[in-house]
Write a structure and sequence with these properties.
2 domains; nuclease; five-stranded mixed β-sheet; 15 helices; metal-binding; nuclease activity; hydrolase; 5 strands; alpha/beta; single chain
């Protein structure tokens, strides 16, 4: 099946400014200060001495995943090794990738990363752009809608305590904090009083993303971000005309392929209350996926760049790497950030939602009867 992921990039593009510093403590910083090889030979001498757990803590991916990423990027024309024609030797691919991974994995400043790897800030900026672009080129391969929908639905049904058949994904939006853009700053200023862009994503039971849309301004409600995404146009086809469905919260309009909870105005029936409980237990997987994404790639906790296009590429690159790492069967427990829910909580309250679809209402009513029967 052709790739169905869409990256929605906002049109407000501005100059990239300096990166802000963070009080994050760098792993092994004290030992590095005592190491005479720290600046000149960090890549050549220090990193090879890291045990796998040290490497994983510093770069937020395992050595095995790092090798896979380098292998995947090795064929990219932007990163291909060129014939040496004299002058300064070209930086090895592994070092370029390592530099960018450290950037995505932390809130360390560009100046700090450049010093650590013994490169100039301009060299860092050049290779960040090339590596991020190369990772984005992998998006159609690693962020794509599943073809075997039956197997996905079975795994969703087996997940957790309750049965809920024919689920193939869960959808939500997450706010990525950014520096105030020079153009259209009010559009990116959300209700929690910080600037952000929205990452809308659909994930499977294994936390991998199957569809992403990046770049809608933080002021937008989830329902509006969804309406402007390609998924809103093709979702029914992807879910085979309602044979399968994805789960969303009450911010989304109810459709035969997008199932949402009953809005609780204080008069829910017992069956409706139970249905909401069943749905919530399955839909939590997308919140866990966002917590893993932001916990692993801590740059997403605050992207101090004013170029919206660059920000969107960085976010989507993190989503691609997120999926690659999951394919490598990494232990993810140490990366999941429990504080992420607080960042996105209630950003959509008091916003109007689109009208529920008649076919969606009928399907949810039938699901309510069936789920109360099988889970009783």
């Amino acid at each position: 099946m052709a790739d169905c992921s869409a990256i929605c990039v906002a049109t407000c593009v501005a100059m990239e400014l300096m990166e802000s510093s963070d009080d994050e403590s760098n792993f092994l910083l004290e030992s590095d200060r005592k190491d005479r090889h720290k600046t000149q030979d960090f890549f050549e001498w220090t990193v090879p001495r890291y045990f796998p757990d040290m490497f994983k803590k510093f770069f937020r991916i395992s050595p095995q995943s790092f090798e896979l990423v380098c292998q995947l990027l090795g064929a990219n024309e932007q990163l291909a090794k060129r014939t040496y024609r004299g002058g300064r030797q070209e930086i090895p691919l592994e070092k370029k990738v390592m530099i960018v991974l450290r950037y995505l994995a932390s809130q360390e400043t560009i100046l700090g990363i450049s010093d650590r790897f013994n490169i100039t800030v301009s060299t860092f900026t050049k290779y960040r752009e090339k590596v991020v672009n190369a990772i984005n080129d992998l998006l159609p391969r690693f962020v794509q809608w599943p073809e075997e929908l039956d197997s996905v639905a079975i795994k969703f049904n087996e997940m957790g305590t309750y049965e809920f058949q024919n689920i193939i994904g869960a959808i939500d939006g997450s706010h990525i904090p950014i520096e105030q853009p020079l153009e259209c700053p009010n559009s990116y200023y959300n209700r929690k009083k910080f600037h952000s862009v929205i990452l809308q994503a659909v994930c499977k039971d294994d936390l991998s993303f199957v569809n992403i849309c990046v770049g809608m301004p933080g002021r937008c409600h989830d329902a509006k971000a969804f309406k402007h995404s390609h998924l809103s146009e093709i979702g029914d086809e992807l879910c085979r005309q309602g044979q399968y469905h994805i789960l969303g919260d009450a911010a989304y309009a109810l459709m035969r392929w997008l199932i949402t909870p009953f809005r609780d105005n204080g008069n829910l029936t017992r069956e409706q209350y139970n249905f909401n409980k069943f749905l919530s237990s399955k839909r939590q997987v997308i919140e866990r996926a966002f917590a893993l994404l932001k916990g692993r790639f801590r740059r997403l906790k605050y992207v101090s760049i004013r170029d919206i296009k660059c920000i969107c590429k960085i976010i989507s690159a993190c989503c691609v790497l997120h999926n690659i790492c999951l394919q490598s069967d990494e232990d993810i427990a140490e990366f999941i950030d429990a504080e992420i829910d607080e960042l996105d909580a209630n950003l959509g309250e008091n916003f109007p939602v689109n009208a529920d679809n008649g076919e969606g209402i009928l399907k949810r009513n039938n699901l309510t009867i069936e789920l109360n029967r099988v889970n009783s």
